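Folds vary. Our protein:
___
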Amino acid sequence: MPLTLDSSLEDALGAVPAKSLNRAFGMRTVGDLVSHYPRRYADPGELTPIRDLPIGETVTIVAEVLSSSFRRMRNRQGAMVDVVIGDGIGRMSLTFFAKNIGAAEWRSKDLAVGRRGVFSGKVGMFNEVTQFAHPEYELFDDEDAARRRADARAAVLIPIYPATSTIQTWQIAKFVGRVLDDLPTVPDPLPDAVRTGDELLTAREALELIHRPRTRNDIDPAVRTLRMHEALTLQTALLQQRDAVRALSATARPAQPGGLLERFDAALPYVLTPDQQTVGDQVAQDLVGAWPMNRLVQGEVGSGKTLVALRAMLQVAESGGQAALIAPTEVLAGQHLRSIAKMLGPALAPLVMPTLLTGQMPAAERRKAALRVASGQALVVVGTHALLGEKTTFADLGLVVVDEQHRFGVEQREALRAKGSSPHALVLTATPIPRTVAMTVFGDLDTSVIRTMPAGRAGIESFVAPLAEHPGWFNRVWDRAAEEISQGRQVFAVCAAIDTAKKTAEPGEQLAIAPEGAAGPRWGVVQLDEALATHPKLGGVRRAVLHGKMPSDEKDAVMQAFARGEIDLLVATTVIEVGVDVPNASTMIVLDADRFGVSQLHQLRGRVGRGGVPGLCLLVTEAESGSVARERVDAVAATLDGFALAEVDLELRGEGDVLGAAQAGVRSSLKLLRVVKDAGLITRAREVAEEILSADPELARHTGLREVIGRRVSDEDRAALAKN
């Protein structure tokens, strides 16, 4: 049988290499192996600067043997081989241990003076000399080296692959070379017209040149072609999923004259913002469409996403349909229920009976709520993961609202949607998503954005307290908090940990500087609360703690007390990151701010400045100026534009971290595609995918693309796509 991309590595290479590649990289097929691309290329004629090697890191270099010797060990059996390699500027030593003199002699002859090769190992230091201890290496063939020196233009670059301690880069190169030699054809996902018009290579050419380039000019066309393959495969799969949803039948949920939605709008004490109106109209149209709504709504903290969702819930409720809102935490679910009940008011709340259902509720109360949901009496249901349980059933689930979608895995979202008959789905996020990420991760969803903020917000000022340069500013942070509290306002103090188990200040001492600590955050909620108890100005204020390990009812009681103004200073973790609405809270203090991501800091800042009280955000950090950690903190202080910060976050962290493991399937397995750098290419791929599917929905005439999608997007991946 001829080799194909679907052939097993055992058939292609044999049992032992196949087992090693599977254990090291999870590779099973030839396609898996040839999509393991080099991370860089070395030129045998250009030796790597040894003097720049980072101590402690595993590296691969090209160098020449300068000396080679061996000697018998004095105090134990065996021998040692000492080799010095150099690059013309610097030099380093290689040390090998051999069982006997014969083995040492062979190693020394193998590493003869003048030979060049690739050497890989962990960079160490011995007697102030850089060294590799027992490195892996592969020497260039003498004839090949002579030929390359004679004709530099024919020099073959050396691919350097992501490798492990058990499989070195040159072993991977040999395996790849063997399968490429035996691989007769490679299916091409690109239509001929697109490939020609965009000046791209065939799939076979691209694989050959990315793995075995003769010059550096071969690499870019290969990478550009394979990136387009990834983008087109992904966008086509997402559009197929969108079309699959649109093939389903949905129950139309129209608003009625004089109905719940109209009555709700008439009672609103304010006018909807232009964006709230626009997005609300889009949602209203979706709810009467022929297929289920599948819409993502992005909006800044406090932009009114919950209002948009509630209006959709009421439109569904008019036909007797139920709406379920799933939130990531008990605190947020309780906040949503109170907020919804307050917005509905005493006239409308009894008609839809908003009901809370969480796992931490007392058993009797939970059974009562579940009965209300199962009977259809509760038309608006708010809950946490408890909504996903087998015992939770709905009479007529017409709308699923997922708040802060990034907190949920796709399986959890699907479990809720499966409780209805093709219910509409509305996904909310207060984490602004860059356009290219939205297109890459949520390309099967229609997307709406709420940018304008409701009137009456006093705004927020943000400042960095850089303790590395100004340690005395730590005291000023707490003096500022005391000033706000003295004016009748409330303060959040957020820590990156619950308990750092470090030594706290002695009783009676003023909180001056963060306690000494090694790795990990300096401040935990426990430590900060104890220290604040001794602060001259804050020791007597009404203070409480809030973190995720507290019992649910206790967390809820603390949050409600803070919302009622009964607590002046709340020391908390990021459990208060989303959904907590306290208009009188004026100040957000974030300790160890460099421990948080850009979006997380932006979310925390959004907890203040929500009413007529001006907001103040103090980002306390010991990160050094110029470090990446400090860049994140400085970026947040510099702008309130969450969408601009999302782009910064993407650039600083890379899309691998931004996309996150929860977005299962093909989207987290991108090899070459970069959503920032390749924005134009992703847009182009989307256009091509739409053109192809509009003319050939089953891909009957695009067999290459169909094969690639079938290979890269497994049934499991498709299931993941379907659950978004």
